[in-house]
Design brief:
DNA-binding, 126 residues, three-stranded mixed beta sheet, two-stranded antiparallel ribbon, alpha+beta, homodimer
DNA sequence: AATAAAAATGATAATGATTATTATTATCAA
DNA sequence: TTGATAATAATAATCATTATCATTTTTATT
């Protein structure tokens, strides 16, 4: 696998800011470190990193796709108030693909489990 | 709850075409029955139907939001080849919200579980 | 039934996220 | 060093969705 400076930087910044950012947010984070970088380059490299399995997409949020530097099996909780994305450990629901197969015969290549609700921060402030 | 002719028609067509269509696809299906209807009206009414719990959104597909006339608890399988959305019965994974709560303390208002892979049709044709 | 108020519509402009295009630049093997 | 290939920055184009607004429909009230 070949890495351009831009792709390396994007991956580094994503790994050092595990906040499940959007492409736009990542652009904002990367720009101070490489002011000449283009938003299109951010999108292009994020897609490539997803394709080669280095990172993961999180969809299901309002509009924009978010990116996850963690490729270990886990799930997500999205706060309906502040829109923050929280990680949910895998042991909340294990072997879903296996259950899918035994119930339906279908074989899953990937599984996305996302909960929505109020996070504890937003519960307090209401 | 109040229903305009347009809203009633949109809901009817969605219920009679349980193919998890996008707003655009639904517009295409409704137009022959009411040629004067506007795409904006389709979007507006779909949002209202979602808000009052008559239908559900499915996100996580490439780009567009899909709509589900079935509000019973269930999950989805999306074919990575033909992009069709299949229903997955609830008993594949029950009480996920309860498990989430006991593991993390978080309370989910909604849960979305989506598998991706090749459907049996697409497996055959490859 | 008449009518004022409220809600919904159709048409279309505007927005926001993402992808495509294109001319230019970086990388690297021969 | 050259030529081939891949990647880039800039920006135009696309696609899904929402906002706007003048007009029409529905609803409630007299």
């Amino acid at each position: 696998m070949n890495f351009s400076k831009q792709r390396e930087l994007i991956l580094d910044v994503l790994r050092q800011n595990p906040i499940h950012p959007t492409a736009d947010k990542l652009y904002e984070l990367v720009r101070p470190l490489m002011p000449s970088i283009s938003l299109a380059t951010v999108y292009r490299n994020l897609n490539q990193l997803v394709d080669n399995g280095s990172i993961r997409k999180i969809s299901g949020l309002d509009g924009a796709v978010h990116y996850d530097h963690c490729v270990e099996k886990h799930y997500h909780f999205i706060c309906t108030c502040c829109n923050k994305v929280y990680d949910v450990p895998y042991n909340v629901a294990e072997d879903l693909e296996q259950k899918l197969k035994s119930f339906t015969g279908l074989e899953a290549q990937s599984t996305e489990l996302t909960f929505k609700g109020l996070c504890s921060d937003c519960q307090k402030s209401n």
